[in-house]
Amino acid sequence: MKARVMPPSRTALLPAAALFRSLGDPARLAIISRLSARESRVTDLTAELGLAQSTVSAHLACLRDCGLVDVRPAGRASVYSLSQPALPALLAAAEAVLDATGNAVALCPRYGQAP
Q1: Gap between the Cα atoms of 101 and 115, Å rounded
Q2: Terminus-to-terminus CA distance in the chain, angstroms?
């Protein structure tokens, strides 16, 4: 007889839901994507992503509070890097799902932009 596997409880899924919420902002995803390539200063990120310094700093603070990025001093600047090596693979898996679904989630009236 095959053992029945119970799905995780909603409570057990709360940390995963919080992770996906932390990545649910396009600016934060852009920052994570950029930091996947190399560590950066806020000024680098603002120039490359076209975001205001205050916006980048606020998103970096959020990502740091979530344990997703690290910061280290470098002279008068702060240099940010990913603290979780699995993040690039997570982003790649998300891209694979989007490719496989034809980006259907982007057209979802609940989460994307309804046609």
Answers
A1: 16
A2: 48
Name, in order, each residue with C-beta under 8 angstroms of 80's C-beta and a sequence gap of 6 or more: 35, 39, 40, 41, 42, 45, 60, 64, 69, 70, 71
- Written as six digits, the tokens of 74 are 């470098």
Per-residue pLDDT at 49: 96
Per residue in 34-90, pLDDT tens? Answer: 999 999 999 999 999 999 999 999 999 999 999 999 999 999 999 999 999 999 999
Measured distance CA(66)–CA(78) in Å, rounded: 18
Non-local (6+) Cβ contacts of 53 within 8 A are 42, 43, 46
Cα 49 to chain centroid distance, Å, stands at 15
Q: What separation in angstroms does the CA of 73 have from each of 4, 41, 46, 52, 58?
A: 51, 10, 18, 21, 18
Half-sphere exposure of 4 (CA within 13 A, CB side): 2
Instruction: Copy the structure tokens of residue 28.
Output: 């934060």
76: left (phi over 0), alpha (psi -120 to 50) or beta: alpha
